[in-house]
Design goal:
Two copies of one chain form a homodimer. By secondary structure, chain A is of the alpha/beta class. Chain A contains twelve helices and twelve strands. Chain A folds into three domains: 44 residues, 434 Repressor (Amino-terminal Domain); 138 residues, Rossmann fold (3-Layer(aba) Sandwich), CATH 3.40.50; 128 residues, Rossmann fold (3-Layer(aba) Sandwich), CATH 3.40.50.2300. A six-stranded parallel beta sheet of chain A has the order 2-1-3-4-5-11, with helices on both faces. The structure holds a DNA duplex (16 and 16 nucleotides).
Chain lengths: 333, 333
DNA sequence: CTGAAAGCGCTAACAT
DNA sequence: ATGTTAGCGCTTTCAG
């Protein structure tokens, strides 16, 4: 492990001259600077970021906190966030809470102790009360992919207009002529999607009966199980709105397994637009979330906050949009 | 930011007494220890890991280097590795090289500067020459999911018997009665799978003709494109072996799109057994890699290396196994 | 333009 | 049992 001090000795100069030469900060005679740089290369010098972090009180690292990696939605976000912050010389550490709030606290404590510069916290990965505590301690935090009515005012966040997303799903199904529609939703996390959906149905004069609303927990399996229940009803829905793609995927499996056709017998619409959705059989109609946009806004908001940009928007709402593929059609006549 | 020094002042003791009380290392009067602990809690003390790392010359952090997160195979590995090392109080930082060797070097330099304690490097994420350089510098490294003939001897690695995996795929297809089988493979990364496959075919007296071997790059899209080409041949194969599940997935899409049936007209077998494979239509027959096992072995090997366990196995080969689902069947008569 | 010195917060001998 | 001291490697005044 060669340090600036080693270089200084060999070069016959002071420690700080080496530091200046290496970082290009102070002012150093061009000749000696070249000599030092040359030496650094020869001796295989590597700056010690641990030491630098300690003395500068920052780590150029942000944390991305998410509830799981099993849902491909999150890896997609990770890629996007990482690509952006890397351009600003920040590193990303991802922190997987496994939907476990206690574990989340534990891990967060570790991150704070490591002097992570800022945090992007994805929805359902942490309890809001904990987050508020962290914010009070002065940690730069931006919430991402939370329901916008869920967080306290004044907290930086970029989220999706989930209410609108629910409306879009309903609109699409209504336009196709569906009147008997079931919903699979992960309450309370996805409450807004449900509300938006219901509002649109109500406006069309077709309130959603409670027995047509099934609970899921955002996984494939839960979508599958919920649909099984739905299909046991005496009167079947002609369409199913699953509040995320993975559950829609599970719903599709249950429907097909029962020998029914998608979309001829039952239409299915999801929400997310993860990569595989385009390749299901049939390809999934879904309300897409602009993931790259989400990641970009969150990253930039956080970076701004870290660097003390007081005059940035504190929050931002991105619009979902409909992607029509082949899992939805007119109801059977 | 309250430090041990702050606590020391308030408690009216020395810095190191506080340190001892907090870490439980030295020997401290039980009464004063309780007082200090109490104070630490009240004052909201958080150990500063940056400082600790600097003084201890270690960070309790390992890096998991992988080529992408788009292939769900990797998130699955991440979850497994992370779960294991967390139990040993290590943190994982994932490093995504995006299949870009130059970027990989850049990021690796950063990680080294951060004093990451050890590295798990997944196949195709880095150039072997670079890795050898790092190992010479004394960095604890274990290779994971590389072709075992690919790495220099003496390098710690846990990999899959990919040759055997190729054989298993061929065996299965041969047993079903297939004689005209195409292969989609990402050379050179997947060379061993191909060789194993070919060896088995040869043993059965049915060498694989070159025009039945298409190149892919491990993505869904490449599997799709390769299959398009295959299906343009005058004489169609009755089965396709794709050297990973994502390509098999693409192959399936191409076949179905052409109006052919899987498996009645063309059987498809993949390799990996990622989570979604069980839910494709039809569910994908595949040669499964024991991902949890892979992650566990790699993590433990690395941890052993970090802690100077000289007497550990330097490498380990795990066995793949066949998972028969519904994408393979007898060839059409 | 250069170097000495203090400090970041913690650990680890070594005295007391 | 407790305190003193010297680092860890780097940054950052501030004199020379």
């Amino acid at each position: 492990m060669v340090t600036i001090y080693d270089i200084a000795k060999v070069a016959g100069v002071g420690k700080s001259t080496v530091a200046n030469a290496l970082t290009g900060k102070g002012t150093v005679n061009e000749a000696t600077r070249q000599r030092i740089l040359q030496l650094a290369r020869e001796m295989g010098y590597r700056p010690n970021l641990v030491a630098r972090n300690l003395s500068q009180h920052k780590t150029l690292t942000i944390a991305l906190i998410l509830p799981t990696l099993v849902n491909p939605f999150y890896p997609e976000i990770v890629e996007a966030v990482e690509n952006i912050v890397r351009q600003h010389d920040y590193q990303t550490v991802i922190c997987n809470t496994h939907y476990d709030f206690a574990l989340a606290r534990e891990q967060m404590d570790r991150l704070i102790s490591r002097w992570i510069d800022g945090y992007i916290i994805m929805g359902t990965s942490m309890e809001l009360n904990d987050i508020i505590r962290y914010i009070k301690q002065g940690l730069p935090i931006v919430l991402c992919d939370w329901q916008e009515n869920e967080s306290a005012p004044g907290i930086a966040q970029v989220s999706v207009d989930f209410y609108r997303a629910g409306q879009i799903a309903a609109e699409h199904l209504l336009e196709l002529g569906h009147r008997s529609i079931a919903v699979i939703v992960d309450k309370p996390w996805q409450a807004l999607r449900l509300e938006g959906f219901q509002s649109m149905m109500l406006a069309a004069g077709i309130p959603v009966p409670v027995e047509m609303i099934e609970a899921g927990n955002s996984t494939f399996e839960s979508g599958y199980a919920a649909t099984k229940k739905l299909l046991a009803h005496p009167v079947l829905p002609t369409a199913i709105f699953a509040a995320n793609d993975l559950m829609a995927f599970g719903a599709m499996e249950a429907v097909l397994e029962k020998g029914l056709r998608v979309p001829q017998d039952i239409s299915i619409i999801g929400l997310d637009d993860i990569a595989i959705s385009a390749h299901l059989r049939p390809p999934l109609t879904t309300v897409a979330l602009p993931k790259t946009r989400l990641a970009k806004e969150a990253a930039e908001l956080l970076l701004g906050q870290i660097n003390g940009n007081k005059d940035m928007q504190v929050s931002c709402l991105v619009e979902p949009y409909l992607v029509v593929r082949q899992s939805t059609a007119h109801p059977p006549t």
